[in-house]
Amino acid sequence: MTSTNKDIATPKRTQEILKKYKFSVKKSLGQNFLIDPNVLSNIVRAAGLTEDSGVIEIGPGIGALTEQSARSAERVLAFEIDQRLLPILKDTLSPYPHVEIVHKDVLKANLLQEVQRYFKPNQDIAVVANLPYYVTTPILMKLLEEKLPIRVIVVMLQKEVAERIAASPGSKIYGSLSIAAQYYAKAETVFTVPKTVFVPQPNVDSAILRLTRREKPPVDVINEDFFFEFVQSSFVQRRKTVLNNLSVFFEEKLDKSDVATILEENGMDPKRRAESISMEEFAFLSNEFFHQVKATEK
Q: Which residue in 54, 71, 164 sits closest to 117, CA to CA?
């Protein structure tokens, strides 16, 4: 839809709304309001919504992105933690009766229950949100780990974090977060958003990250919790070899020489660093180590 002066996200309208409600931004809640309707409509477009879609939003602010989603989707469910924004949202989103604002911390909410309550069975559901930067990772991991019926997650977040999540092996920004997210979803950065289109301006540029849910993980692991701990421990000190990092992780169960032997017997050079190891290699190794650890516990 073409932008008009009625869009919440224009600089003039945003200032009018903030002034009308004497709203002061809380840095602790990561509040930065987007003032470019074109950027917002591009975010919504990246989610591939239809008139039958449902949208989950986290941190709607004054409703700028919510409005764009509401124009494309059948239902929008938005979680807002800041009570001061509730009367503003009631006002700005009054033309959209198919939007529901829930005054809850999304990290404490029972999302599956909320989804089942608000959306129709088997409805196409997308998450479309400008995430508060200070809780980006916990929110994303909650959305992915809870195995919600979500097709795609399209979120704006710090550019550096988006790039880390979408990174490939061999890159200096590839890490345990890349593997954790890509285990559940295909990750790609769609476009960059300059800091100049926000009020107030953040210190860094943002990016739009699209996570398309996988029907099943790309690797088979015996124990998911062990796999994620194994990966995380391999990256604890990035400059150290996988042997050194894993020796610390297994120090109460395996000698360093045992760790080296298991790595070598499974075709892994103990001198490699975690950033060069693919998810497939990590899955294979974690399964081997899982067997070894279980054997020592008998």
A: 54
